[in-house]
Design a protein that fits this description.
By secondary structure, the protein is an alpha+beta fold. It has 9 helices and 18 strands. The chain folds into 2 domains: 72 residues, no CATH class; 197 residues. Strands 2, 5, 7, 8, 9, 12, 13, 15 and 17 form a 9-stranded antiparallel beta sheet that branches. The protein has a 4-stranded antiparallel beta sheet with strand order 6-14-10-11, with no helix packed on it. The protein has a 3-stranded antiparallel beta sheet with strand order 1-18-16, with no helix packed on it. A hairpin with a 2-residue loop joins strand 3 and strand 4. The longest helix has 23 residues. The termini are far apart.
Length: 311
């Protein structure tokens, strides 16, 4: 079995098997199959899943007796299985994951892999103002198929708006990210804009092959490949979350990209390849002096805009 795993991990073969296939058809099939309620089928499927991944259910609230593969995918954790960073000056990881590209936004440009840039303007879609995130910070968190698939508020916040963008279902593993340009901008995704204090943040869940359904607790909709409803979804009443509170889940594994404004910085140890757990410190809010500088710059920009309009 380990020999088979090594063979499947070879880059060319892995890319062929996970991308040069009818991705959307497979994703639709997986969505249907995972929902089939059959305890026996669920046990067999989970057993097969474990042969190819490091699936560990020891921290799950429910560790057996799943009626469907879907129930295992979106499993909850036991109370206390994750510690939420208590310092209000630190943003916590919204999910378990592996850190991908991260660091400073270069103007409006970020990277999915070395040498493969994309613009946050394209990622967010034409309806969104990305000015608050220019020269800011970002971090990419990849959820593997065996990980805990729910995601949580990185800080006390209120959700303002959701933009849902239909797209493809390319695999988001490192092999694909090194080969497919602007991959995140091609895949189905949601842009969740939140406010915390005087700061704006953006949480961008990106779907992938076998993963094209997203449940958000503040939207009474299941966002998926067949969704044809409004793409712009305002969330203004009661969409408030405490730090660490659950916001939603993927149906399988995928990626979350977190964007913060200028002045935020990554915490020590947050580097590409690091494994993080939900609740772990990811980013530092601006220091008092730094925050004042950012506010002054924003104020000057606003004043200039006012004078321009007045003229």
């Amino acid at each position: 079995m380990k020999q088979l795993q090594r063979i499947l991990q070879q880059e060319d073969l892995n890319f062929l098997l996970t991308n040069r296939v009818p991705r959307i058809a497979l994703t639709r099939f997986m969505g249907w199959f995972s929902q089939v309620r059959s305890p026996l089928l669920a046990r067999l499927s989970i057993g097969l899943w474990r042969m190819f991944t490091d699936l560990d259910l020891s921290e799950a609230k429910q560790q057996s007796g799943f009626r469907s593969l879907h129930e295992c995918f979106i499993r909850e954790l036991k109370p206390g299985a994750r510690t939420i960073e208590p310092d209000p000056a630190l943003l916590a990881s919204p999910c378990d994951g592996i850190v991908g590209e991260c660091g400073e936004v270069r103007g409006r440009q970020v990277f999915q892999a070395k040498g493969f840039p994309y613009s946050i303007e394209e990622l967010f879609g034409p309806s969104q103002d990305i000015t608050p995130f220019e020269d800011g910070s970002y971090i990419t968190l990849r959820l593997t198929s065996s990980m805990y698939h729910r995601f949580h508020a990185p800080v006390d916040c209120e959700v303002d708006h959701v933009t849902f963008i239909s797209g493809d279902t390319w695999n988001v593993n490192p092999i694909a990210l090194k080969r497919v340009e602007r991959l995140f901008c091609r895949n189905e995704r949601a842009v969740v804009r939140v406010r915390s204090g005087g700061h704006q943040l953006a949480i961008v869940p990106v779907a992938a092959i076998l993963v094209a359904s997203l449940r958000l607790h503040f939207v009474d909709l299941l966002l998926h490949l067949g969704y044809r409803g409004p793409k712009e979804i305002p969330c203004r009443d009661g969409a408030r979350f405490a730090k660490g509170q659950e916001m939603g889940w993927f149906q399988h594994g995928s990626t979350i990209i977190l964007f913060a404004p200028k002045g935020f910085s990554l915490c020590d140890g947050i580097v590409t390849g690091a494994r993080v757990r939900m609740g772990q410190a990811l980013m530092k809010l601006p220091t008092a002096a730094g925050a004042e500088t950012v506010r002054s710059a924003e104020s000057a920009t606003n004043d200039a805009d006012c004078h321009t309009h007045a003229g």
